[in-house]
Amino acid sequence: MSDWDTSELDDLIGDFAKAGPKAEASTRVVVAKVAFDTVAGGQDRVAVDTGNLKNSIGQDFDDDGMGFEAGPTANYGAAVEFGSDPHVIRARNKKALFWPGAEHPVKQVNHPGSAPQPYMRPAFEAAIRSVDKVMGQVGKKAIT
Q1: What is 97-141 written as a DSSP string?
Q2: pLDDT tens-digit series, residues 3-13
């Protein structure tokens, strides 16, 4: 029969048991940091014309704070991120379309489409690169 010294293991198990609420709170801190870094990165990377798209980028946290969604509320945000196929733009609220430089008003325009200009995906990818480091920092506090 062998005697095993499990005191260190018992201490570690006790630390993790006590860390439950602390670990959860620490995870919320990490999630919030990634969310805010993603939004800031998206705003830094997005192409700016009027500033509407940039200003519409934000985040929504899950009810428990353990997850989030980040992105623009501007209805054309996905077309900038992923690009768009050629499509027709038709006048809706007015009888014709007109813009500075146009020769005359028109009822519709054939848009050639646009290439993707990713801004949210690269921002999220950059933000999650710091998770290991941040989790290590807050994780130490959670079990001590």
Answers
A1: B--TT-SS-BSEEEE--B-----HHHHHHHHHTTHHHHHHHHHHH
A2: 555 566 556 55
